[in-house]
Design brief:
heterodimer; A: about 110 residues; mainly beta; 6-stranded mixed sheet; 5-stranded antiparallel sheet; about 0% helix; about 50% strand; B: about 120 residues; 7-stranded mixed sheet; 4-stranded antiparallel sheet; globular
Chain lengths: ~110, ~120
């Protein structure tokens, strides 16, 4: 019940295309859903995050879509660029759960020039 | 965003020695820090939750005597890998949650420490 399932495991997108990464969760107590971007040899960096009372959040080229009833959320990267090539992790936590963050398995994105 | 500094970024040690990794929150106070371990091409595995002034809470399967965590101040947590062995070789990452100013409690990560045990 603590798992966050992420797909696909890897993704290849043409430059300018849309990258879509999906996540699903079981624990309805989760109340915050961040996405992290990680480059090789570096720590993860917060990209964008959403609360479950919002269906969509957009920041620049990055959009989170959230479906509370389906317990699913996704990251859309518009106009994908080679510099977006990285590993992306979805995550979830509860404010009442000590902020212990549960990570998805990660998606390795490669944007072809 | 908030800055978390982790040191050293890379360390190579001989089997049987101990290695200390520091995690500092540079521009905010963090009563809670987290230590993760990441194997190549895998996700982050939470090892322990470090609370300032109290004992760390370890996840199931993590040896507390092997991975000593100390959180002596609101800006510093340390992870000591004791009697390191080659199987302890991994990428260790710390994160900290800002405690002041409300907000969503986002985690800010250090740059990670690559440990290689020969």
């Amino acid at each position: 019940q603590q798992q966050v399932k992420q797909s696909p495991q890897s993704l290849i997108v043409q430059k300018g295309g849309i990258s879509i990464i999906n996540c699903a969760y079981e624990n309805t107590a989760f109340d915050y859903f961040p996405w992290y971007q990680q480059f090789p040899g570096k720590g993860p960096a917060l990209l964008i995050a959403i609360r479950p009372d919002v269906s969509e959040k957009k920041e620049g080229r990055f959009t989170i879509s959230f479906n509370k009833s389906a317990k699913q959320f996704s990251l859309h990267i518009m106009d994908s660029q080679p510099g977006d090539s990285a590993t992306y992790f979805c995550a979830a936590y509860t404010h009442t759960g000590g902020f212990k963050t549960i990570f998805g398995a990660g998606t390795r994105l490669f944007v072809k020039a | 965003g908030a800055v978390v500094s982790q040191h050293p970024s890379r360390v190579i040690c001989k089997s049987g020695t101990s290695v200390k990794i520091e995690c500092r929150s540079l521009d905010f106070q963090a009563t809670t820090m987290f230590w993760y371990r990441q194997f190549p091409k895998q996700s982050l595995m939470l090892m322990a939750t470090s609370n300032e002034g109290s004992k760390a809470t370890y996840e199931q399967g993590v040896e507390k005597d092997k991975f000593l965590i100390n959180h002596a101040s609101l800006t510093l947590s340390t992870l000591t890998v004791t009697s390191a062995h080659p199987e302890d070789s991994s990428f260790y990452i710390c994160s900290a949650r800002a405690t002041s100013g409300g907000g969503n409690g986002e985690l800010f990560f250090g740059e990670g420490s690559r440990l290689t045990v020969l």
